[in-house]
Amino acid sequence: MSKTLKIAGMPNLHSHSFQRAMAGLTERQTNPSDSFWTWRELMYRFASRITPDQLHAIASQLYVEMLEAGYTSVCEFHYLHHQPDGKMYADNSAMSQAIIQAAQDTGIGLTLLPVLYMTGGFDGRALNEQQKRFGHSVEEFLALIAKLQSQENEKLKIGIAFHSLRAVPEKAMHEVLASISGKLPIHIHISEQMPEVNECVALRGVGPVQWLMDNADVNHDWTLVHATHLDDAEVALIAKSKATVAICTTTEANLGDGFFRLRDFIVAGGAFGIGSDSNTSVSPVEELRWLEYGQRLLHQQRNIAVAPEQTSVGKFLWQKSVGDGRISSQQDCSEDYLILDENAVALAGVNDAMLYDRLVFGGNRCLVKDVFVAGKLVVGDGKHAARESIATNYSKVLNQLLA
Ligand SMILES: [Zn+2]
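Above are the sequence and the zinc ion SMILES. Below is the predicted complex in structure-token form.
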């Protein structure tokens, strides 16, 4: 094997695994003003039916796809906690266990982020019927975290997530932050959609990022998911805080969120990585390529994501997303790596200088051959060992859910 073809595996900073099963189901216009908010109604209806066994089957399929595409760890932003009617399962961690089992069965590194979700808006309104599956009191949430922390191992890290500022009252956020001890990842959806930003400004006087920075000690343990709509001060504040932004390009495109201020953020020295989020696309190559392409379309320029010391866009994007992504996931990824396919025509004549640009911008065929997580082979010759049995189980579940 040529040394050139060994590269670091990609951390996936943001995933809602159950949404993999909805890919392609929400692409039919129901109203000329279809938006994130009409998509969310469909997502809620779908989410309301999934059992722990079904979630295990969906997450297993998704994690096989992630590994085969070159993601070696995943941060699972997990809010589907309870039974469809909102009652807790006899085991309060049943849905979390389904995710943990899927990660163990497939060999992907997992940073599980149980999500605190308490209110339906900035005004503190109660959760609606469809949101009841997501809800916890602070006490219930901390009990879940403590239980899951007792299961941590080399490839299972437990963190916490606040769904968003609109779903977590200020007092609850402070109670949770005061109760956690030790270093752990803290993730939050923020400034994804303009109605959310406008509501925050109306009720709290400033935008969500500004508010968070003013009211919490945001540091490198934090990951801000999306951070799409930022003013100049917020760009600088995030960069200075050392928090990582999880940019979810294909999902942000799918949902019509907007463009991340990538160039300004890079110039400010900000940390970022990528997430597959709704999992309509499961490919680090596509995330990175469209992160750059979106900026090219926006600015009518080329070769935007670079640094003075790294002018290869592909290499800058891959290495930056790996390096900052490891901080966000808090996984030990030192032995997570990929071997690219030496027989791929797309890599013919490749050398070190051009490798990443050819990987990211050279086409659509997956060039990942072997995948190692914690030094252990999990994908050989492009194929996960359990691919067939997991796919069979997944198909069965999809037939149930779509019946
Ligand atoms: Zn999300």
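The chain is about 40% helix and 15% strand.
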